[in-house]
Design goal:
alpha/beta; 177 residues
Length: 177
Amino acid sequence: MAVVRPFDKLPALNSAAFLLVGSDEGLQQKLAEAILREKKDFKISIHLATSLPLPSERDHLRPRIDLIAFMIDIKSKYSLKNVEASLAHVDASFFLGKVCFLVTGVGRVNYCSVEMNSIWKLGEVYCSPVLFCELELEGIRVATAQRLLRMLQICAGHIPGVSALSFGSLMRNSADN
């Protein structure tokens, strides 16, 4: 079981790969479908995983991963523990703008079993943006898909003059204000 590294493979022309890690496979699938429905001018491949590490026997078939989104369900302490355990299998250079934390279920804060401070601290420790959304609602799911797609374009190098690191820094600074 290998550590996921951002630059161990060459990028493919006009394509990007997105890894979505989370314990709720149903919401992962809905979000992946929403991303694929969006209009884009490059080929996208989305890989779903419940946790890391990824199986090493298919590593030679896997493309270079441009962005990883870790999904945390605000109603499930297990999802937070799963993400925390998975982070150990990600190379440190990924945290230079190629990782984000996607917090789902924020529309039901009354049923919150994960402390918000834990989530904010995770984003701070790993220098990665924290995005809040409610993937059960179609409109918010589409808006989240559009946002993630734009982040993926930047992380894959398809937006001239903007790097993943500068974009990640910009996202963190806007969240601090």
